[in-house]
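User: My advisor asked me to double-check a structure prediction for ComF family protein before group meeting. I don't want to rely on an old file, so could you generate it fresh from this sequence?
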Amino acid sequence: MLLGLRQRPEEARIAALVRVLAEGLPQWRRRPLLVPVPSWKRRGNPLPALVCRQLVHQLGYRHDDLLERSRPVLGQHHLKRAMRLANQEGAFHCRRGPRPGEATGRPVLIVDDILTSGATGCNAALALETHGWPVVGMLCLARTPGGRSRSRP
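Assistant: Sure, here is a fresh prediction for ComF family protein from the sequence you gave:
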């Protein structure tokens, strides 16, 4: 379903998925700042930004496009974990650090659609943390099953 929504985003379906996601979120002292994972493709994955928009609408969270891609990366669907980590290394740049008091006590959450190895999230967090943003986690709509092996045809 998520792969289909990447091609043809439907606001109502995304809103429903975000409502379910929001049920499991903690109550924050200060509303989180959401940072979507950017795509390097011209017609990239719209879901991280759309999930952010829904969380802003439904929960009043803040959103900022702090990340940009430093370089293109390989498609990761065929890569194993070590190769995914290497592929994403240095792939993100943070556009700016926090203004005085902006990051104090405000959790920063990276937003993506699917979590597989964590390589994208780890490298996005590193870029943000290097500029002084306190990343506390990542929000995703789905996670691939852990520990599975892929057989080759």
